Amino acid sequence: MRFIKIFRSFAAVLLAAALLLAGTAFAESAVPAVETDLDVIQKYGNIVLKVTAKSLLDQGYEYGDMLKVTIIGQDLEMPLCSNYPDVDNGALICRVVNDGSNDDNLVILAIYMGDLATTLGIAEKVATNDELGFTWKPNYDLPIPVTIAMKEKGGYAEGLMIHQLVRTNNREDYANLTDEEYANFRNVKTTGMGAYALFRTSSPIDPELNRNKEADEALNNAGVRTVMNLSDNEAKMKSYDGYPNSYYSQRDIIPLNLAMDFYSDEFSAGLAKGMEFFASHEGPYLVHCMEGKDRAGIVSAVLECLMGATAEEVAADYMVTYYNYYGIEPGTDKYEAIRKGNIDKNLARLFGVDDIYQSGLDLSASAETYLRSIGLDDDTIAKLKENLGKSYAE
Q1: What gap in Å lies between CA 290 and CA 43, rounded to an integer?
Q2: Residues in Cβ contact with 298 at an 8 Å cutoff, skipping those fewer than 6 apart
Q3: 306 exposed, middle or buried (CB, 10 Å; 0-12, 13-18, 19+)?
Q4: Distance CA 75, CA 344 (A)
């Protein structure tokens, strides 16, 4: 009798599993493939499709699903998510923005911190003199068809849970932060860096995040003299409301307008100009992009390594941003996932090493090697280190 009960229980488990698998297969097959076209290519190479977010979600697609996206004969696998940080750096993402407004009812294919249009060879950049600094020249006849199909229902649910981040642009939602923390403004204090030599921040001029005024005030209070702007060209930089009257406008600034593809020739060439600008101008220095998170994060990290910081120090400084924006605390699963998938991964790839924490690794030498690889000579590197090693404390 006991054997029969066990057998029946085991059979019930098998039946439940079979029904679950059948239900999953039915759910996946019941979600129809969606045929659409490429609509526009955004500034950083992200591809906006003609299908709307609402219509895609109405077909049964949900956040956390794994998709198969077919474009120009290539099959790409990517998760359906709501924001770029929902995946690791360098990962494909189908970003579905659906907050109820017409302006944000978008389906976007992208590489987080990369340039999908260039990577796939869909289009190439042609330089212009307008605010964007370039236009896209398609390599294929339009329209370019795109098919979205279900790969695995809920296949990215766990990854989404780890990466899902929530931020607002309302100052009152960050009552526990100072104005400087709210603006993601801080002095970089890692080993080897001179006192008050280097600062990083969100944009002091771009109002999109509602943090520009706090950042502008902070850079003035810090006595910043030289600025590396990673997100704007000169025309865009000077077009922001209030720019002429900002403290920021009174500084020595190099606007680089770099995309978030740290491994591209364009990023390397632009960063080399930024480093040469720091070497030839007086500090204190400031690095910023829009959020002060990704581009500013990797540039700050390279400079920290150059000056002698440990991998632990670099990662800790990088992750302060995720506390300022999202309240991510050290020691949590999200903290570790973000650190490993972002700063650890990117620095290792830039420096050509397997692990930035590996025993015996000289991060300063690795940073010097990287800077030489993007075009800096030894004299410029030496001057950069001299400038960043000075104390600017009054």
Answers
A1: 14
A2: 262, 343, 346, 347, 350
A3: buried
A4: 29
